[in-house]
Write the structure tokens for this entry.
Amino acid sequence: MKDRETRLVSGKGQFVEDMELNGMAHLAFVGSPYAHAKIVRIDAGKALSMPGVITVITGKEILEHTNPLPVQADLKIPGGLWRLAKVYALATDRARWFGEPVAAVIAEDERTATKAADLVEVEYEVLPYVRDVKEAMKPDAPLLYEEWGDNKQVHLKFDFGDVNAAFKEADQAIKLIYSEGRASGFPLEGRAFLAQWEKNTEFLTVWGTFQTPFMARHNIAETLGLPEVKVKTIAADIGGAFGNKIHTYKENVVALASMLTGRPVKYIESQREWFVTGPHQRDVSWEGEIAFKKDGEVLGLKATVIHDLGVESTNKGIAATSIFPACCAVANAYHWKGMHIEGYGIVTNKSFYCAYRGYGKDKGIKFIESALDQVAKKLNMKPEEIRFKNFIQPDEFPYKQINNYIYDSGDYPAVLTKVVEMADLKGWREKQKELRVQGRYIGIGMAFTVEPAGVAIPNCQMGGITQARVKMLYDGTFEVHSDWTEIGQGSEKSHAIIVSDIIGCNIADIYVAPVTSDWIGQGPLSSRGAVYCASAVAKAAKILREKLLRYASIYFEEAPEDIDTGDGKIFSRNDPEKSLTFKEMAHKVHVFPGPRGMGEEILKAHDHLPDVTTSWYSNITAETGSTYTTFCASADIEVVEVDLDTGITKILEHTHVHDAGKAISKQIVDGQIHGGIVQGIGEALTEELIYDENGVLLNCSHADYLMPTALDAPDIKIGHLETPSPFTETGSKGMGEAPIIGGKAVVLSAIEDALSPFNVRVNESPVTREKLRKWILEAQKGIGGNAV
Amino acid sequence: MKNFVGSRALPDLIYHCPKDVENALALLKNIKGECKIIAGCTDFIPAIRRGAWRFGDGLNVIDIRGVDTLQEITKDADNIRIGAATRLSDIVDSAIIRKYAPILSDAVNEMASLQVRNIGTIGGNLCTASPAADTAPPLLVLDAAVNVKGVDRDEVVSLYDFFKGPGKTILGEKDMLTEIFVPVMKLDERVQFIKLGRRVAATLSVISVAVWAKMKDNIFEGIRLAFGAAAPTPMRAPKAEAYLAGKEASVEVIDEGAKIAADEINPISDVRASEGYRRDMAYVLTGKAIAACVK
Amino acid sequence: MNVPIRLKVNGKECDLKIEPQATLLEVLREQLKIKSVHQGCQEGECGVCTVLLNGKPVYSCLILAIQADGTEVTTVEGLLKDGQLHPLMESFVENHAFQCGYCTPGFVIKAYYLLNKSDDLTEEAIRRGLEGNLCRCTGYVNIVKAIKAAAEKKRSGNWW
């Protein structure tokens, strides 16, 4: 079977933009030019009279034909604050962010729809708007949702261990502040949908950039008031996701358009709309205090993190839920005695928050890594020393972390030792000294990341659901289904590797079906592919293998224990003559002699079909309530050179060592590492979404939202270690997010190290050239010249 | 206020492709209704897509890439003549420009990306007149001139007088830019161009500096400074130039000259950089560029 | 107002009727059904629409099809030989030089141009040559690796 790679490199992708259906119409959205405004009136007359325009959908049709978007997470924590607002698929009475869709034009072709979008006349009453968290929290701030009384959407509090005792026992405590600019993934393909309403059978099919087809189908059905069985979502080839496509919402309007017009309707989101209509992420500020002993042992942490969530989103709670891991993941790789963490989610008139590689875990980890560096400095310890001092040790696993996560396995000292060695830390430190004398400033940064993966949250659509099916067909090939959507992360290949490894068939004989809503599951998010999806597929493959051994035992007249598989064959260990290819096996099983030839026992047990559907749930979560199941570990060391005169940061070298348990495919894992690190570098140096004083997003395109090019990205050296997870079927751990977390943290750490003679604190990002130059000038004024 | 629409469609176009300058001018004269000269479209199309430029349906576009003489690079004893429709990549590859005006080929080589340089033209870059146009500072320090032709117009104008404001030049609705004349560099002249963006590649200038210096016994016999993204138009720095002229190129003099230039420019704060950073970098980069020339 | 133009696309002469405002990208995708060229940003920033025009890499979204009249266009479809992958494409597959695949045809075309232009590409030259093509998935490491490996294939005569 021609594999996906061959297809894509030959240009035979089937992205939504490549799909065509007879009678297809096109949709274009009309967005609000204001950050906050009442929609007084929409007059689509001029647009409707343009030749080629079929219809225009506004809030009126949305209220008439759709329900408010369904809740996806409802996490009422005692003592906390959790609010959701009523949100529809299109703005109805009010636009709450610049670019928010207020109408949709459906026309014969994309060009006509876009031109007609300009003719839709919308009368607004401009309202005062909230520019940022600070303004949102003022007592007289304009409210986004009057019924709330203020602009706080979420407030969570966590008390772990005994924080007071921890601070009492400590010798010292230092205060910390840390913030991250607003950024997100923006894969090169935006959201795209093709909806087809079949009016006779009243069945809705939607092809799209669905990272989570099963969840999407439920949400569409509820929104449109359709029975779920009458809706099917199909993941097309997806041009990257990184979490940005788990929550979509525009597809509801596309689907409604098809229902109202009776035509298939396509929507291809422009890049500009992708930036403007979210989902956005990061944009947090931390304030905290870390308590420690003079030998470097960290004991306690008090911290508050405030998120700028933008508007209460159409993802109805998924965005807000990210505040959980933001607060909890601060524990990272270390022993703690007590913590008090508070997380806020504040609404502002910006595009909504959702998920981007890291989701919430990234924030806590970046914060604590920066904090540890400060503790190390205070105590005149090296950054690796402070980490070695506080690591959870290899013999402590499974380890109940202070945040109630159960860490499965790991060897953190080995990972850090290896990266120190591979990066030649000693050599670079010597070089650093030499270069400083010459007036050149290089810095060596370090970051350690323990990534919680495989999420299962109560009262949330991401509750830990997954399904897999593996079957052997008449021709001896295998067909695999799951909820592990291919978004470029290699799930299709991974399915095939897992099934081939377990069953012993050839990879070329495995067909991995595109993921659709037919299969229950929450899709690849939170790096759960290697945890839940892989486990379900592995389990199904194992059960199927057992069945095949039982069938073969009938044909070979041998005990199943004496039969083995491999290399596309099933054979007896005792007698090499007794061997069948899977094709021959399949013929026997299905037809010749078929079920009648299988014997009474198998038939009476109804066990005669080589087809297994199964599910998987994490035992450790079931037993302990630990939200995540696996915890991969990685370490980054990066060397940068900072040009004092301009603020330019040049990355000289990047070394990364990771332990993601048993890798399903090293090549796939390395690819995730490369991509994640470079995204982290983008966040660290150049990526930031900036709204102006009118609440208008200033950087709506690649010209001004700057992602790393091949020249900005470094070569990356990777080292591997494997401590298998005892909690997954394959021993693998989710690892897709660790690289972006460490990848960003290490850049800031390196820049701070480069400028240590100037005592510049790098606790803000992105560290643009301008910002860095400003800090250098300020520091130089303070110190009065270069200090070596 | 305009609706936010993601990526706008191009208007219906009426396309003209004259084969010589006379026909182009005749078209400009005779066409009733809106018309626009196009060449590479590397500004035209993006500007329409993001809603910065808006045209009604039936826009007449006059594609001057059909005129061969406007794509030639030739040289006589004193001047290089560059046709306005010359592709940026041809400027980078041109042996004539590399030898006699290398600052221009160096600067153009850092513009946008290879794909854009293979389509975009020097005339387009000058006529779009972004304050950050990267071809302008090198041309300004080389004291380039441009040939403006129109219905009743055929004059050679110093590039110094060409730009009028952000996106505005002396070109009227019925005018076109046909050639750029660049004085051939002499052996005792030195040039340097430094561009600062927000990332390493494919970046718009936050500020760019071009320096031309004629040195004798380490004295500035002649000195020209030009800046991009530093004012409403690409600009020279006459005050700084006046200060430097005739002086010995000592570290202190160069530093002072750079300070005066940084003060003389008139940058804005926008999403790409603040006024303060632009002035600061003008100071830093002018110093470096002059030092490179003087070395 | 349909205007006739002629393009030689992947070696095949194509007579087309187009609107003056149609971009080369639109004509390639919609009329010739060449889907390897992707829509992307439509503003000449991301590179997914990169094709070779008379042998040089350009953004097809920034060219009016009418301006391309009489030119030769090459896309990845044109690099296949009887359905067989070009050695450069094989190199991309072998070296895991793409993940979601959306930017890949643009990179392959760019790499094809770079490798044909020079037999001696350094890492720096490769990376500079790739400016103008964005990738969000791979971090570029394997793309550079694939291009180096393809250079080896070309040196050993495995090329067309």
